[in-house]
């Protein structure tokens, strides 16, 4: 048995040793430290206490092997705190007390973040090889937290000291920001548009993402997710989907009479038929251009910190990043203005209104394609362009809704994280029909 195996005895025999980081595990996304971090046991028992102590020791062991700032420390020098994670990960903050002789014996605190994947089963939704390649690549570009290294079921990365996530209601441009139109006024929308514009300018090259540049991965990925559900959906889950996702009048939308799951598949085929062309009109074609995208730019993945600037933001969590239509990344974020993660989205009240869409697109264009944008404005075509692109983003929001519905059904089966995934799917299915009916009413579908 390797000394790195995460078994009940792992950590007990060697966790208190002073250990230097092993260079082969640093920064290289293709090299995996052979350690796994076990799930946290929430039961109240002596065995749970012992198990969780071993889990914490293993977290420390991982950090001591891959984080250069922890060189020379021991487990006794470290404090480990479990943080609130997202819908797929468990996070640990590791703080080390490093003696600093240059400051009269005062200690320097060094920190890193250990990100543990939700479960091996949930890895069917995320290719961890690709995720780590992308994270390391973006780290080198300065667009993601510093990437230290990976272990069997997660990775270690930079911890943004003092950073906090936004909430959904922070995402939309405020009245004051729209009126003044500057980055410095109250609101985070300028920073979000700026960060997305920078991402969409990145050229990853081939072999980094799931698809090579120019090929949208959402089509293949969603087909794969639908195939996973098709291959594993037993009668009990199908009944739950029909009852919970289809409640409130959502089961028969679109003339569907065969159950919610059959309706989801039907809608996906219609979307593919309509949105896989190059588009009509300059704004529409621009929105369908395939660029490097974040694809999960939601409030929990947008961090703020007064030390970065009062309204500055940083993006994290690139699990679903890859090459996709730029309108899809924008549409996904516009959906995140609503409180879907909190299971209380109000699509009519919270989805960006026209003034917020206009503000976002104009600020995005200034960063994503400044020369193109200046030419469009000089020709007096910016108003029509923004309208076309905004409609394209709304259309692509349907892809966002539908993909996350399918994702949620899979998570219901495989995730070890406590979250009402089918209620989340119901909310996104509701959002899908809210938007589709508006598009039909406007003649944009």
Automatic annotation (TrEMBL):
GO cellular component labels: cytoplasm
Enzyme Commission designation: 2.7.1.82
GO molecular function, one example?
A: ethanolamine kinase activity
Recorded hits in InterPro entries, A to Z, give: Kinase-like_dom_sf
GO BP annotations of the record are: phosphatidylethanolamine biosynthetic process
**Cross-referenced Pfam families:** Choline_kinase
- According to the record, the residues making up region (Disordered) are 1-23
- Write out the pathway annotation from the protein's UniProt entry: Phospholipid metabolism; phosphatidylethanolamine biosynthesis; phosphatidylethanolamine from ethanolamine: step 1/3
Similarity comment:
Belongs to the choline/ethanolamine kinase family.
Name of the protein described by the UniProt record: ethanolamine kinase
Name its species. Answer: Triparma columacea
């Amino acid at each position: 048995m390797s000394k790195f195996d995460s078994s009940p005895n792992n950590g007990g025999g060697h966790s208190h040793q002073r250990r230097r980081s092993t260079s082969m595990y640093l920064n290289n996304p293709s090299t995996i430290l052979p350690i796994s971090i076990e799930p946290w046991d929430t039961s109240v028992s002596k065995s749970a206490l012992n198990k969780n102590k071993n889990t914490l020791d293993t977290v420390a062991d991982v950090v001591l092997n891959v984080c250069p700032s922890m060189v020379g420390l021991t487990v006794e020098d470290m404090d480990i705190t479990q943080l609130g994670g997202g819908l797929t990960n468990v996070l640990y903050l590791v703080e080390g007390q490093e003696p600093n002789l240059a400051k009269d014996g005062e200690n320097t605190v060094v920190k890193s973040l250990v990100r543990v994947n939700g479960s091996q089963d949930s890895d069917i939704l995320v290719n961890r090889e690709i995720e780590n390649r992308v994270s390391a690549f973006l780290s080198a570009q300065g667009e993601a937290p510093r990437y230290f290294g990976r272990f069997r079921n997660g990775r270690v990365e930079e911890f943004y000291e003092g950073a906090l996530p936004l909430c959904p209601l922070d995402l939309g441009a405020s009245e004051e920001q729209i009126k003044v139109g500057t980055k410095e006024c109250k609101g985070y929308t300028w920073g979000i548009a700026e960060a997305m514009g920078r991402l969409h300018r990145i050229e990853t090259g081939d072999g980094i993402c799931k698809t090579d540049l120019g090929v949208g991965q959402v089509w293949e990925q969603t087909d794969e997710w639908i195939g996973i559900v098709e291959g594993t959906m037993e009668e009990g889950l199908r009944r739950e989907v029909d009852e919970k996702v289809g409640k409130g009048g959502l089961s028969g939308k679109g003339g569907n009479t065969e159950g919610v799951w059959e309706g989801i598949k039907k809608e996906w085929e219609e979307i593919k038929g309509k949105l896989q062309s190059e588009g009509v009109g300059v704004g529409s074609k621009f929105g369908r251009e395939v660029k490097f995208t974040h694809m999960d730019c939601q409030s929990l993945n947008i961090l703020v910190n007064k030390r970065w600037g009062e309204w500055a933001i940083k993006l994290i969590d690139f699990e679903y990043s890859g090459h996709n239509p730029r309108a899809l990344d924008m549409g996904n974020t516009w959906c995140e203005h609503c409180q879907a993660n909190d299971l209380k989205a109000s699509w009519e009240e919270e989805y960006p209104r026209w003034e917020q869409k206009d503000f976002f697109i104009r600020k995005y264009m200034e960063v994503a394609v400044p020369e193109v944008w200046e030419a469009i404005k000089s020709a007096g075509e910016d108003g029509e362009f923004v309208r076309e692109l905004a409609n394209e983003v709304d259309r692509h929001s349907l892809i966002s809704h539908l993909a996350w519905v399918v994702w949620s059904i899979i998570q219901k089966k495989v995730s070890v994280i406590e979250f009402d995934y089918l209620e989340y799917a119901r909310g996104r299915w509701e959002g899908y029909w809210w938007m589709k009916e508006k598009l039909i009413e406007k003649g944009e579908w």
